[in-house]
Amino acid sequence: MESARMKPHPVLILSLLGASVVWGYWPVLAEMADTWFTNPQYSHAYLVPVFSAYLLWRARKDRPHGDEGPAWWGAAVLLAGTILRLAGSYYSLTWLQAYSLLPVLWGAALLLSGWSAFRWSWWPVAFLFFMIPLPYRAETLLSHPLQQLATYLSVYTLQTFGWPAFQEGNVIVLNAHRIGIVTACNGLGMLILFFALAAGVATLVQRPWIDRAAIVLGAAPIAIISNVIRIVTTTMLYEVMGKRWGDLLFHDLAGWIMMPIALGLLWLELLCISWLFVSAPSEEAGELDFSQQEAHLEYARR
Fold it and tell me: Are 25 and 96 in contact (CB under 8 A)?
């Protein structure tokens, strides 16, 4: 009885763990927050920890209640995260230090309450991946192909609508106007945002795993289509209404306009998935139909 009274409260343990993680990762978290504030590609990242906390709360019925002991495999996972943290600090790789936060949290969950805590928290912790800025080399490798693709598809769309546009490198030429598709317009920010959005939607909807995978994979075409719509609309405004209105849409309103368009495309994707993939009837429904058929046969015999 005395040992049960002296057992630490789970809230106290979690508070101490959270304080330790914040203290150990404070320089990394501060640098990430600065990137979120200064880089528009990661302006959504502030909402990622909030959504992860919501996922934990949403699955609160599955949370561990202290009956299961610690899983000592967590020590190995925690050690791996610590090694990544030290290696990132030694080689000045902020992205590696940030990614090391995920195994550290998984290892801590295993050590605190075993595999039940890991099953409860693994996906909310994994979702924190979307708040971590990509490595510079990854951004560089993705930037140029996305620029070329956005320029080509935008010119093709304009020509399809009958506008006399053509491509010069990453520049769209339309009569007297030259609209450059610079690095900031390559759609990488939309790609990152829509992958996070699609993963969140796939988590919340009650659908089979193949439907959820299709939702996540659909994030890339939605991001590309949304960026092309933005560029084409801006180019048309430059031609019809002048540079002032084109700059207004391109720099000030594009971010607000693209989100409803992306949500609409995501809704259409969900609609198409519901048409293409029909859920199989449950066993309970099958048993109910069979019992109803037996009742009808019995009534016919009478």
Answer: no
